[in-house]
Amino acid sequence: MIFNQLFDVKSSTYTYIIASDKGREALIIDPVIESTEEYLNLLNELNLKLVKVIDTHIHADHVTGLNELSKRTNCTKIMGEKSKSEVVDIKVKEDDKVKIDNIELKTIYTPGHTDCSYSFLMNDRVFTGDTLLINGTGRTDFQNGNAEDQYDSLFNKLLKLPEKTLVYPAHDYNGKKFSTIESEKKNNPRLQVNSISQYVDIMNNLNLANPKMMDIAVPANVKGLTLNQL
Ligand code: FE2
């Protein structure tokens, strides 16, 4: 398997390129539109064919590269069934599998950060979007976010994965590239709670400013804009 983790400095977003070294099919998770050329160059260098692209949720802090990549490569655009995107090709639900060659990702519905947040489990690693971050969790105060739902997604789904499972989030603001379920259980300050109400209390009192790009990014991501439409 080929696995690349790329970082967008402006939005602190991690993008993942996964590919099979036999069939040369590739999949990208959470691309950023401004980095489209970088992804295409890398795919080209590695002799890979992009066949699928996934967004874990409708992002508020950057414009997705989903639509530009699909326009350029004809790859299939995938999001969860609760996504408000008007342009995705396939909407997946809990337990649905996303496949390229011999690689399979299992869909886990993990609402809370937004109601359209999904995680994807691939063998020893899970792509958690903004549901579970390293030493943090995604804010729950917009886009139909809900702290109770997030508690359920975390404690009843993601934290029940095997402890050695590697955690690859959609963002990190401190230079950390990945974690494990075990480490997050032990060290993530948001997860050291005794009850759902304690968690909800923390999340409902974060008092964060809205992301700078929100008013541009959310409608662009719902409408599926490409570079020349921005
Ligand atoms: Fe997000």
List the main descriptive attributes of the protein structure presented here.
single chain; 230 residues; alpha/beta; Metallo-beta-lactamase, Chain A; 6-stranded mixed β-sheet; 6 helices; 14 strands; binds fe (ii) ion
Textual characterization of the structure:
The protein is 23% helix and 28% strand. The protein is an alpha/beta fold and 230 residues long. Helix 3 (147-156) packs across helix 5. The structure holds fe (ii) ion. Fe (ii) ion is lined by residues 57, 59-60, 113, 130, 138. Fe (ii) ion binds at residues 57, 59-60, 113, 130, 138.
CATH homologous superfamily heading: Ribonuclease Z/Hydroxyacylglutathione hydrolase-like
Listing every helix as H and every strand as E from the N terminus to the C terminus, the arrangement reads EEEHEHEEEEEEEEHEEHHH
**Shape label:** globular
State the CATH class.
Alpha Beta
Spatial arrangement of strands, main beta sheet: 1-2-3-4-5-6
Helix content: 10-25%
Q: For the record, give the distance between the C-alpha atoms at the N and C termini, rounded to a whole number.
A: 34 Å
Please give the count of helices.
6
CATH topology: Metallo-beta-lactamase, Chain A
Please, what is the average pLDDT?
Answer: 97
CATH 2nd-level architecture: 4-Layer Sandwich
Number of domains: 1
What about the largest sheet?
6 strands, mixed
Q: What is the alpha-carbon Rg in Å? A: 17 Å
